[in-house]
Amino acid sequence: MREGLARKVWLLCLGALLCGVSSGLDRAHRRHMGLHRHRGERGKEGQVLHRSKRGWVWNQFFVIEEYTGPDPVLVGRLHSDVDSGDGNIKYILSGEGAGTIFVIDDKTGNIHATKTLDREEQAQYTLTAQAVARDTMKPLEPPSEFIVKVQDINDNPPEFLHGPYYARVPEMSNVGTSVITVTASDADDPTYGNSARLVYSILQGQPYFSVEPQTGVIRTALPNMDREARQEYDVVIQAKDMGGHMGGLSGTTDVKITLTDVNDNPPKFPQSVYTMAVSEDKVPGEEVGRLKAKDPDMGENGMVEYRFLEGDGMGVLEINKDSETQEAVIKLKKVVDYEKKKTYTVKVEAWNPHVDPRFMAWGPYKDTATVKVSVEDADEPPVFNEASYNFEVEENAPEGTVVGQVHARDTDTANNPVRYMIPRYTDLGQFFGITPEDGVIKTTRPLDRENQAWHNISVSATEIGGHHQDSKVRVNIKVKDVNDNPPEFATNNEVLVCENVVPGKLIETVSATDKDEMAHRQYFQFSLPPEVVNNHNFTLKDNKDSTASIYVMRKGFSRMTQDMYFLPIEINDNGVPPQSSTQTLTIRVCSCDSKETILSCNVEPFILPAGLSTGALIAILACIVILLAIVVLFVALRRQKKEPLIVFEEEDIRENIITYDDEGGGEEDTEAFDIATLQNPDGANGFLPRKDIKPELQFPMRPGARPVANSVDVDDFIKTRISDADNDPTAPPYDSIQIYGYEGRGSVAGSLSSLESVTTDSDLDYDYLQSWGPRFKKLADLYGTKDSADDNS
């Protein structure tokens, strides 16, 4: 600020506006705020006091929100010391809302609010004021900022932004247990008055719940609230501003409170005694009956387990739980018999596996019931004395040999007699029979253990009378072995021996097998028959362990002399009765090297010419393969090469004779035959293909050299064909004679054709054609009718 510049700023502010609805008064109170530049003041002692000079001193301006008066609201007034009131000073306002919301009188400096303000949208506005010369627009004072604050009124009700609310609280909770906290918000200014001071209260839900006025915490208000009696509660909470006083605005929200379950109820059987029945023909595992203890709790709190406590039925009954229905299922553990015991009793206990310790004093959490099971009589099938039978019979036993006996009885009170039979599907070979009255099993034919050592059959027992119940039992019959099969070689392989084998060499060890069962310490004995004991080629030694060794007795075997030897060997099994057989061992002589490695055992190489070795055979085969390859290559090349044209005499195509067996209609017939058909249809396109060979090149014909298709000038036609044949590069190197039945022009006989008859008038009379018969009727109609028509015309 410049020295000597006398300034004085008067700030007139409009303050609290009194909006009296009842009186209808709507006027603004002006608030004057200003700073005066004081000139020097003299103190008591004659001293001159000086204050620092300031052009502007500002305070905040206030304007009430939601003002709805008819005139703009006067916010305040700007005044400068340099303003002498002559109108030379201009006041300028800029900043937030300047010119739109706030306007200034540039002469007086009065600031008005032209629009209704909402503090919740914008709480304050920052503006800039400046005084300038009206004529030059030069600043007279530095610009300064000031704030216009919007003064709050209670125009917004409280709102629950997160409602509606859902809460859960365990049943049987103590009084004062916190359930949930609800919170409301008020858009009014919390720093001004009580517009945003909220108080909570409960409108619905008493006397079960309460709410803290200041915090909004909902708590239980009654003890022992039982979920089984009522599970859900609808609570309405109100929030009111102005501290809850009259005239305040309010808002509400809904709170749904659900009581959760606790285990506060023991299981309970609806009745104390249950009666059930089971038939004696039921098998273990079948269901006898069900019972259920009711527990009003939910989830694991309502889970119930079952068990037997006591009773004479604990040995024949068992109890399980159906996890889906929570029922106790009683099943048979053992078969019951009506004839032995008719009733059973058990005591069943139902109990909760999950007990809440807080409610142990409310127990016990279990209940008991008595179950009485009565056994019902049933017509049962016969019962065999054994679960299965095992019998033995010797093989080769004669027909009718007794194998064994089975026995069954009717356990019912009637004790009906029983008949026995063997189902055929268990004895397809029908080896056995049974006596129906007493169950004695016998053979129907001799049995062979070597074919079938075991026979597994079934025997059916059916009661006579009643419901003809039947039952079956398994019978296993073992066929005992009898030594009835002679031994034989275990393998029938040939023995190979070298030509240069040395005497005494072991060439083979033979063994034997027997279809019969070998007894303990039983073994096979080997020996040579008497007729070959003294042979000089081979000998045999019994090893006493069911094997025998074959040795060579001499040397100098020759395949050329004898290439195969047959050695008979007797084998005895030492059984009861003893069985023996004579087996033949085949010994083949082979060619070997010096190390006794077998080279060949076949006789075919000896009939080949001497000196023809294996290498020579391979060479001959290679030559044959090469010759075959050459022949195949030659044939393939000939197929790719073009074959020359071969013309057989009987297929000579040099003369093309076309014969037409058509009967003409006379000289005046112009439609019977068209000479143009002698032309090649392909010639009309300018190309004459050869029919006897495939041309390599095709030359187009000279334009204009061929007569038109409808031309009847045969002479020109023939000349054209001759020219085409002479100029055809694909023509064969021999003359081609083409013969046409045409006499040419200037013939004494004249033209035989009627092609030109239509263009000349004829003086001939054709009436005689009418008398020639039906064959000439067409011709007579053509010419006679025409003449008649001409005469009539």
Descriptive overview:
- With 793 residues, the chain is mainly beta.
- The chain contains three helices and 47 strands.
- The strands form 14 sheets. The chain has a five-stranded antiparallel β-sheet, with no helix packed on it.
- A hairpin with a 4-residue loop joins strand 26 and strand 27.
- It starts with 7 loop residues before the first strand and ends with a helix.
- One of its GO terms (molecular function) is beta-catenin binding.
- Cadherins are calcium-dependent cell adhesion proteins.
**Mean of residue pLDDT?**
78
Binned, the helix content reads: under 10%
Please summarize the sheet with the most strands. 5 strands, antiparallel
User: Terminal Cα separation, in Å?
Assistant: 142 Å
What features would you highlight for this structure?
793 residues; mainly beta; five-stranded antiparallel sheet; five-stranded mixed sheet; 47 strands; 7% helix; extended
In short:
This protein has 793 residues and is mainly beta. Helices cover 7% and strands 32% of the residues.
